[in-house]
Each structure stands twice: as structure tokens, then as C-alpha cells.
Amino acid sequence: MNDDDYSATELGSHWFQGPTQDPTPDRVEGEVLRFGPGVTAAAARRAGNTPTAAQIWHGTPPPRRRRRSLRYVPAALILLVALALLAWREYGPGVSVRDVAVTAPEGPLGCDGTANVLGVVRTDGRRGTLAYHWERSDGTRSAPLRETLARGQKEARLHLLWTFQGRGTHHAVARLVITSPTTHTAEGTFTYRCD
């Protein structure tokens, strides 16, 4: 290299020439003219996470958003539905009474006999508790009673044992009164006869 041609302080003429009068744009997007590798709207859309201009300019990848995995959503929904059904079966509406009937002895009851009066309560098969009492035509009434029904049990059989003594004839009426979950009544009649 020739030392006479070299100068550390001299710059070539291409370093201090100004820009040309009419620069040509790199590309045209709609009505927007782009010069150089600037950030375009298309580049921002492709990035997906709306990175900063500096990240796009320097080629830095945008910060990744944590994607929530959607593959577990169907299983989670199925689990929630199953739990809701179980909770509804367990804690939802209780037993519902559909029908109440009382059956008493058909023929006359003899001297010093005991009548077995049967109340049959038909339900919808849900689990629950029936509250009831018996009323007799001699003016007596039983204490409040309860019958617990298991799931799937569609019938409750409630007994009243009514004992008679002495001579005479009595037309007996036994009334079953369901007080809960809803009010229902039914009655049966029989005759006690002792001559």
C-alpha cells in the first residue's frame, strides 16, 4: 500500500453526499409508501403478539404468550357435568309423593282383636324422609312419625296396629296424614264386632 495515497482523516466522497432528490420506495402497501426495512402492519400481524418496533427491527422474537392448552377442556366439561348430576341426585329435590292409599281389614274384627291397618305411599324413587301421623275415629292421634326412604325405593308401607277389647260394635276409621314433603291423606274403614 502506498502511504502517500492514505489519509486517516479523509473520507471518501460517498460519505458526505446527501440523499438523492427522488428516492424510490422499496414497496407500496395500499397508499402507504415504505422506505427501507421499517415495521409494517403486515409484519406486526404476522408477529401475533404485537411486538415492539425495536423487536421487529432487530429481529428479536416477541415474548411468547403462554397458551392455555385446550385439549383438557372437553374432559373438564364432562367432569363438571358428571359432578353436577351427582350433586343434583344427592342434594337436589327430595322425595315426591305420588299416591297414598290405606287398606283396612275387610271382614269384621272379632272380640279383643287387633286390626293391622296398612298405609301405602307411592313415591318417585328419590331419597328422602316422609313425615306423617295416624288419626283414629276414637279421637286419638299418633305422635309425629318419620319414614326414611332410600334412593330407588318407590313405595313405603306404614302400619297402624289398633287393638280393641270388650263387647260391642264399633265402626272404625283410620286416617293416614302425610305432612311432609307435601300434604296427603287417605283413610280406611273396618268394623269391630264382639257380641
How would you characterize this protein structure?
By secondary structure, this protein is α+β, with helices and mostly antiparallel strands. The protein folds into two domains: about 25-65, no CATH class; about 95-195, Sandwich (Immunoglobulin-like). It is built from three helices and nine strands, in the order ββαααβββββββ. The strands form three sheets. A four-stranded antiparallel sheet has the order 6-5-8-9, with no helix packed on it. The longest helix is centred in the middle third of the chain and has 19 residues, at about 75-90. The chain is rod-shaped and about 155 Å long. Keywords: Membrane, Transmembrane, Transmembrane helix.
- The overall pLDDT, averaged over residues, is 79
Instruction: Give Rg in angstroms.
Output: 47 Å
Order of strands across the biggest sheet? 6-5-8-9
Largest sheet: 4 strands, antiparallel
Overall outline = rod-shaped
Beta-sheet strand percentage? Answer: 35-45%
The CATH class of the largest domain turns out to be: Mainly Beta
Q: What count of structural domains?
A: 2
CATH architecture of the largest domain: Sandwich
Beta-strand segment tally: 9
**Uncertain ranges:** none
Helix fraction by DSSP (H/I, runs of at least 4) = 10-25%
Order of secondary-structure elements: EEHHHEEEEEEE
CATH overall fold name of the largest domain = Immunoglobulin-like
Cα(first) to Cα(last) distance is 153 Å
Could you say which structural class the secondary elements and strand pairing correspond to?
Answer: alpha+beta
**CATH homologous superfamily heading of the largest domain:** Immunoglobulins
